[in-house]
C-alpha cells in the first residue's frame, strides 16, 4: 500500500514563523516565551521600534497632557473605591467636627471621608484635581502650538479634528468631576449649567428635565455625572487618544525647519531606545511634579464650602479656569429677550453660553480647510512654519487668545471690584468694550511684529549678523561689522514656502465663451488679505549678489509686486 504524499506549506509566512521560532528558542527565558506568542522579534525587525521622532521642547506639551491623563486614570481608580455617587440625604458623622450632625448627601459625606479618614485620600484627591487642570492646560497649549506652526495642514486635518474632540471631552470630564462632591461651590456651578440648558430655545425645559430628572437639582444628577465621569468620557478619551497617537505614528512627525530637514525626511532620534527612555523619564517628572502640587498646594477644600443647598450661593464663586470664559461672557452680556407666543427666548444666556462655545469649536474645526481655501495649497506639509512666516494666522491666533482672556477676566469681575475697590458696573461696561477692541489691537500689533521679524530675517540673510564689536573710525564715527551667516542658518531663514495671493481667474472654451470662475472675487480678496502683506524672502540671485559685493542690491518693486534687481 502506497504511503500518502507529505504536504509541506512553504509559504513565506510559515518560513518566517519558523525562523522567528528558531531565533526565539535561541534567546530562551521569558523573552523567548513572549516572542513565541507575541512575535516581538518580528516587531523589532519591522523597523517600528526604530521609527525616528524629532526632538524639540514644544513637543513635550502633548506628552504632558498624555501623562496627566495617565495620572488621572490611576488616581481616579483609587477615588472610585470610596466615593458614593448618591444624593440621598444622611447625617454626617465623620471626623470633621465643624460639620458633624449636619444633613449632607452621601456624595459629600464620602468626599469628606476620603479627605480625612482614608489614608492618603486627601493627597490623591488633590493630585487628581491638579492633574485634571494640568491635562486641560497642556492640551490647550499643545493645540496652540499646532495652530501657530501650521501642523494642522494636509495630511493632518483629521488629527486636528481629533484634537478638538479631545479638548471638548476634557472640558466635559473636568466639569463632571468638579461637580461630583456635591458641595456648595460645585452646586453653584450646576445651577449655572442648569441656566444654560434652560436657555436653549424651545427644548430647554425638556432638556433640563431629562438631565436632572425633574426640576433642578433633582435626585439623579450625581449618579449620572458619575457614570459620565468614570465611564463614558474616559472611554471616549481613551479612544481619541489612541487614534491621535496612531495617526502621529502613521504620518511622519512634524519637525521644525533646519539644515537637512524637508518634507521627505525626519531628523531626530529612534523610538527605541532613545525616545522611549526620555519619555519614560519625563513621565516620572510630570508624576512627581503633580505629587508635589497635591501635597503642598490646597485645592477644592469642600469642607469649607459645606454641602450644597439650592437656596444658597457661595460668595465669590468661580469655576475652574477652563470654564471661566463662558461665565465671563454671560456676566457682561446685556439683557436681551424675545417673547414669541407663549415662549421666552433668553438670548443673554444662550448666545454667550451655548452659542459662544459652539462658535469656538466650530471655528477651530473648519480652520484647516479655510486656510487651504485661502492659499490654494494642496501639498503635504511635514516641516512646520515659524509663526512669523504666517503673520495673519499668527495675528488671528493672538487675537483669539486675547478675546478669550477678556472673557476670562470678566468672569471674575466681582473679585476684581472687591480687591481693587472699583465699581462693578464700570468694570462690566469696560469689559463689554474690551472684548471687541482688545483683539483688534492684538491682531494689528502681532502682525506688525511678525512682518518686522520677517524683514529682520531678510536683512540678516543678505547682510549677516552684527559681530558685537563697535569700532571707532579716525574721523570719530562708530560702526559695527557684520559676520556672514552659515549656510545652515541661511537655509533655516529662507527654506519656507511663500504663497502668492490668489487672483481672479476664469477659463474660456474654444469659442472664447467664459466658463465658471475658478477663483471668485471674494476668495481672491480674502487671499490678498491673508497673504498679501508678507515680506518677500531673498531670492537666490539676491543672496549671491550680497555674497559677492557684501551689500544689499538695489531692489525695486515691479507692477506685479515682485522684487526686481538693478
TrEMBL record:
GO BP terms in the entry: respiratory electron transport chain
Reactions catalysed: a quinol + 2 Fe(III)-[cytochrome c](out) = a quinone + 2 Fe(II)-[cytochrome c](out) + 2 H(+)(out)
Key words of the record: Cell membrane, Electron transport, Heme, Iron, Membrane, Metal-binding, Respiratory chain, Translocase, Transmembrane, Transmembrane helix, Transport
Gene Ontology CC: plasma membrane
Compositional bias of kind Basic and acidic residues: 541-552
Record keyword Iron present: yes
Domain Cytochrome b/b6 N-terminal region profile stretches: 30-257
Cofactor dependency: heme
Subcellular location: Cell membrane
Record-listed E.C. numbers: 7.1.1.8
Keyword Metal-binding belongs to the record: yes
Membrane topology recorded in Swiss-Prot or TrEMBL: Multi-pass membrane protein
Membrane-spanning ranges: 59-83, 127-148, 160-180, 226-251, 272-297, 345-370, 390-410, 422-445
GO molecular function, one term: metal ion binding
InterPro entries attached to this UniProt entry: Cyt_b/b6_N (IPR005797), Cytb/b6-like_sf (IPR027387), Di-haem_cyt_TM (IPR016174)
Broad EC category: translocase
Region (Disordered): 1-28, 541-566
Major localization listed first in the record, in broad terms: membrane
Protein name: Cytochrome bc1 complex cytochrome b subunit
Organism, as annotated: Tessaracoccus bendigoensis DSM 12906
Amino acid at each position: 500500500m502506497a504511503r500518502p504524499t507529505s504536504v509541506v506549506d512553504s509559504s513565506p509566512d510559515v518560513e518566517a514563523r519558523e525562523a522567528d521560532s528558531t531565533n526565539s528558542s535561541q534567546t530562551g527565558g521569558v523573552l523567548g516565551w513572549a516572542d513565541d506568542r507575541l512575535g516581538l522579534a518580528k516587531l523589532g525587525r519591522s523597523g517600528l521600534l526604530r521609527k525616528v521622532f524629532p526632538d524639540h521642547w514644544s513637543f513635550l506639551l502633548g506628552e504632558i497632557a498624555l501623562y496627566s491623563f495617565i495620572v488621572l486614570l490611576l488616581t481616579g481608580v483609587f477615588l472610585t473605591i470610596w466615593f458614593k455617587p448618591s444624593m440621598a440625604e444622611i447625617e454626617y458623622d465623620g471626623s470633621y467636627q465643624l460639620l458633624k450632625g449636619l444633613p449632607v448627601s452621601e456624595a459629600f459625606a464620602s468626599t469628606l471621608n476620603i479627605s480625612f479618614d482614608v489614608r492618603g485620600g486627601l493627597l490623591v484627591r488633590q493630585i487628581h484635581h491638579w492633574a485634571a487642570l494640568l491635562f486641560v492646560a497642556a492640551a490647550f497649549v499643545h493645540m496652540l502650538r499646532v495652530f501657530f506652526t501650521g501642523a494642522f495642514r494636509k495630511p493632518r486635518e483629521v488629527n486636528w479634528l481629533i484634537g478638538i474632540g479631545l479638548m471638548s471631552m476634557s472640558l466635559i470630564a473636568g466639569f463632571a468631576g468638579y461637580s461630583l462632591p456635591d458641595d456648595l461651590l460645585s452646586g453653584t456651578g450646576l445651577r449655572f449649567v442648569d441656566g444654560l440648558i434652560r436657555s436653549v430655545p424651545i427644548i430647554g425645559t425638556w432638556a433640563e428635565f431629562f438631565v436632572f430628572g425633574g426640576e433642578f437639582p433633582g435626585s439623579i444628577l450625581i449618579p449620572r455625572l458619575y457614570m459620565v465621569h468614570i465611564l463614558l468620557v474616559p472611554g471616549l478619551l481613551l479612544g481619541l487618544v489612541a487614534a491621535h497617537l496612531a495617526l502621529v505614528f502613521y504620518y511622519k512627525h512634524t519637525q521644525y525647519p533646519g539644515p537637512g530637514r524637508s518634507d521627505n525626511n525626519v531628523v531626530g532620534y529612534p523610538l527605541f531606545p532613545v525616545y522611549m527612555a526620555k519619555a519614560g523619564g519625563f513621565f516620572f517628572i510630570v508624576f512627581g511634579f503633580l505629587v508635589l502640587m497635591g501635597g503642598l498646594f490646597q485645592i477644592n477644600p469642600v469642607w469649607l464650602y459645606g454641602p450644597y443647598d439650592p437656596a444658597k450661593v457661595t460668595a465669590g464663586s468661580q469655576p475652574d479656569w477652563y470654564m471661566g470664559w463662558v461665565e465671563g461672557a454671560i456676566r457682561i452680556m446685556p439683557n436681551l429677550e424675545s417673547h414669541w407666543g407663549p415662549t421666552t427666548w433668553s438670548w443673554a444666556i444662550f448666545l454667550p453660553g451655548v452659542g459662544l462655545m459652539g462658535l469656538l469649536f466650530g471655528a477651530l474645526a473648519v480652520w484647516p480647510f479655510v486656510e487651504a481655501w485661502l492659499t490654494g495649497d494642496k501639498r503635504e506639509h511635514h516641516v512646520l512654519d515659524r509663526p512669523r512666516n504666517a503673520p495673519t494666522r499668527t495675528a488671528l491666533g493672538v487675537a483669539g487668545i486675547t478675546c478669550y482672556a477678556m472673557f476670562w477676566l470678566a468672569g471674575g469681575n466681582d473679585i476684581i471690584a472687591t480687591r481693587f475697590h472699583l465699581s462693578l458696573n464700570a468694570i462690566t461696561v469696560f469689559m463689554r468694550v474690551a472684548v471687541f477692541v482688545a483683539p483688534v489691537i492684538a491682531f494689528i500689533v502681532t502682525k506688525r511684529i511678525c512682518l518686522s521679524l520677517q524683514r529682520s530675517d531678510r536683512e540678516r540673510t543678505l547682510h549677516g549678523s552684527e559681530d558685537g564689536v563697535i569700532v571707532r573710525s579716525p574721523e570719530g564715527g562708530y560702526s559695527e561689522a557684520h559676520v556672514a551667516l552659515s549656510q545652515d542658518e541661511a537655509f533655516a531663514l529662507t527654506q519656507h514656502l511663500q504663497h502668492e495671493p490668489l487672483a481672479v481667474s476664469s477659463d474660456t472654451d474654444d469659442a472664447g465663451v467664459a466658463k465658471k470662475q475658478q477663483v471668485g472675487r471674494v476668495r481672491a480678496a480674502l487671499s490678498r488679505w491673508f497673504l498679501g502683506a508678507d515680506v518677500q524672502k531673498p531670492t537666490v540671485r539676491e543672496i549671491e549678489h550680497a555674497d559677492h559685493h557684501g551689500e544689499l542690491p538695489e531692489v525695486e518693486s515691479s507692477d506685479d509686486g515682485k522684487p526686481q534687481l538693478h
